[in-house]
């Protein structure tokens, strides 16, 4: 694939688009997945990079652009945050402080900036971020429309392995599917995509363009993406970062635990594998393991109907009298308050 190494800002494309064909009917949506690295510990620079990527994607005609998991805020690959059973180191706590400082508030100024970008380039935007809510962090996906409006978010409901040390757990209130002019859009993050009941909830909401921001670059990930496309009768857009060791701070500021001694600045630490798959299971674009890239395809939305004719997992292929799912989609809070002032007013009005 043709890629432009070491892109220079404002001097031509960041990198060449990987393009696959499609028809030009009114039911066709031009979608792009971004495969690029965070500027780690530098959220303003990452936002600048995001805008350059959006501008590039828009120049290729993209109507929908999907970014990787944790693109804003960063995926802390290789870090242990100084955690072992029964102990946390001072260095690890400081590392978490810096990571917390790189996260963003939702809503907040960075969300406003992302919304403005979506409006400026007239694209629907799906962006992976690290969300800061007080002192707890969440791995989150934000959704924006092409008019520059923030639509809402999905918080990862089950972080994987050591992610559970640094990220909180989402609840059922943030599993949205948005009905937009380019299709019904939702997202599940990384290994959430291996949770059958979560997928079923999204299918029941009518998802048509299933976004799967991830940090999993293994070839076996492609099997999950193909299965979801077939199971859900939907387009699957998986976006992952492509990162080299030099995209992270150098040691000792940042250390890849257990592998640092084997890495050079050019060592690939996340190989990407971003891909777009049709409801029939056909790979439309990717997977790309070559470097940073924009990966695009034209999505014929009519293919969703054709796929559902064969298999509609929550329609004619369901057996609700045998198998059913209950989704608790209300917000869950650890603390709730009963207002004494409201009680006083009620008592006063009744006397």
Automatic annotation (TrEMBL):
<dbReference type="GO" id="GO:0047427">
    <property type="term" value="F:cyanoalanine nitrilase activity"/>
</dbReference>
<dbReference type="InterPro" id="IPR000132">
    <property type="entry name" value="Nitrilase/CN_hydratase_CS"/>
</dbReference>
<comment type="similarity">
    <text>Belongs to the carbon-nitrogen hydrolase superfamily. Nitrilase family.</text>
</comment>
<dbReference type="Pfam" id="PF00795">
    <property type="entry name" value="CN_hydrolase"/>
</dbReference>
<dbReference type="GO" id="GO:0018822">
    <property type="term" value="F:nitrile hydratase activity"/>
</dbReference>
<keyword id="KW-0378">Hydrolase</keyword>
<feature type="domain" description="CN hydrolase">
    <location>
        <begin position="29"/>
        <end position="301"/>
    </location>
</feature>
<dbReference type="InterPro" id="IPR003010">
    <property type="entry name" value="C-N_Hydrolase"/>
</dbReference>
<dbReference type="GO" id="GO:0000257">
    <property type="term" value="F:nitrilase activity"/>
</dbReference>
<protein>
    <recommendedName>
        <fullName>cyanoalanine nitrilase</fullName>
        <ecNumber>3.5.5.4</ecNumber>
    </recommendedName>
</protein>
<feature type="active site" description="Proton acceptor">
    <location>
        <position position="69"/>
    </location>
</feature>
<dbReference type="InterPro" id="IPR036526">
    <property type="entry name" value="C-N_Hydrolase_sf"/>
</dbReference>
<dbReference type="GO" id="GO:0051410">
    <property type="term" value="P:detoxification of nitrogen compound"/>
</dbReference>
<comment type="function">
    <text>Highly specific for beta-cyano-L-alanine (Ala(CN)). Low activity with 3-phenylpropionitrile (PPN). Not associated with auxin production but may be involved in cyanide detoxification.</text>
</comment>
<dbReference type="InterPro" id="IPR044149">
    <property type="entry name" value="Nitrilases_CHs"/>
</dbReference>
């Amino acid at each position: 694939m043709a890629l432009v190494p070491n892109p220079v800002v404002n001097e031509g494309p960041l990198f060449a688009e990987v393009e696959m064909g499609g028809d030009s009917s009114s039911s066709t949506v031009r979608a792009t997945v971004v495969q690029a690295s965070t500027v780690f510990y530098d959220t303003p620079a990452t936002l600048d990079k995001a805008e350059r990527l959006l501008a590039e994607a828009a120049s290729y005609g993209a109507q929908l652009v999907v970014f990787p998991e944790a693109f804003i805020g960063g995926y802390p690959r290789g870090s242990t945050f100084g955690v072992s059973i029964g102990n946390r180191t001072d260095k690890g706590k400081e590392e978490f402080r810096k990571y917390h400082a790189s996260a963003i508030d939702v809503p907040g100024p960075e969300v406003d900036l992302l919304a403005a970008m979506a409006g400026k380039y007239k694209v629907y935007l799906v962006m992976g971020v690290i969300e800061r809510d007080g002192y707890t962090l969440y791995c989150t996906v934000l959704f924006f429309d092409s008019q520059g409006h923030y639509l809402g978010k999905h918080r990862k409901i089950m972080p994987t392995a050591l992610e559970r040390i640094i990220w909180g757990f989402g609840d059922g209130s943030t599993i949205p599917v948005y009905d937009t002019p380019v299709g019904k859009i939702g997202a599940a993050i990384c290994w959430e995509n291996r949770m059958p009941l979560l997928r079923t909830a999204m299918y029941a909401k009518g998802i048509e363009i299933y976004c799967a921001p991830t940090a999993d670059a293994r070839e076996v990930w492609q099997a999950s993406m193909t299965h979801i496309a077939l199971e859900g009768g939907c387009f699957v857009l998986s976006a992952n970062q492509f990162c080299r060791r030099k995209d992270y701070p150098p040691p000792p500021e940042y250390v890849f635990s257990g592998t640092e001694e084997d890495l050079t600045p050019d060592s690939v630490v996340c190989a990407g594998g971003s891909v777009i798959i049709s409801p029939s299971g056909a790979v439309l674009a990717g997977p790309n393991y070559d470097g940073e890239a924009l990966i695009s395809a034209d999505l014929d939305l009519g293919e969703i109907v054709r796929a559902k004719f064969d298999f509609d997992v929550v329609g004619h292929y369901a057996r609700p009298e045998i198998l059913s799912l209950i989704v608790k989609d209300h917000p869950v809070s650890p603390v709730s308050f009963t207002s004494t002032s409201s009680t006083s007013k009620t008592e006063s009005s009744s006397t």
